[in-house]
Every structure is written in C-alpha cells, then in structure tokens.
Amino acid sequence: MSEPRDDERLFGEEDVAKILKSASERQATRKAPNAGLTLEELKQVAAEAGIDPRHVADAAKEITAPGISAVPNAQVTASASDQPNFWGGPLS
Known about the structure:
Helix content: 40-55%
Oligomer: single chain
C-alpha cells in the first residue's frame, strides 16, 4: 500500500496548531506593516478552520474591552505562556 500524498494526509490537532502557527509567523514577516483582518474576515477564516465564529467574536471583545488597548499595527510579543517556565512559574 502506498503512502498518502501530503495533500491527503490527516494531521492531528497538535500538528495543525504547529503548522498554522509557523505559517502565520512566516507570513507576518512578509506582510506590510498595516496588514490585518477585519472581524468578519477573522470569523470567516475561523469557520473554515472549524472554529465557531462566535468564539472569535468573544475573543475579539476581550482584547478590545475597556482598559485593554487594541492598538492598530501593534507588534505581537510573546506572552508569558510562551516563556520558559518551571512547573508553571517563570524561570527568573
């Protein structure tokens, strides 16, 4: 039996997350500084990826809530969860 072609291979959730993260990071380095998506575009992308658009809308509300600045063209930085840690705590 032959191996499935790459375009027919099934990827698990962890691999999907890694692939999409890597692809988005690669694209981000090549995009114009003011490139972005509207909420409707985000919801469409989410729906195509199997994510309920209502969750996207709720997440967008969280980052645009009073007291949280949704700065246009802001640089994305690593979150605390992306930093090395020891059993949930920071290393330094």
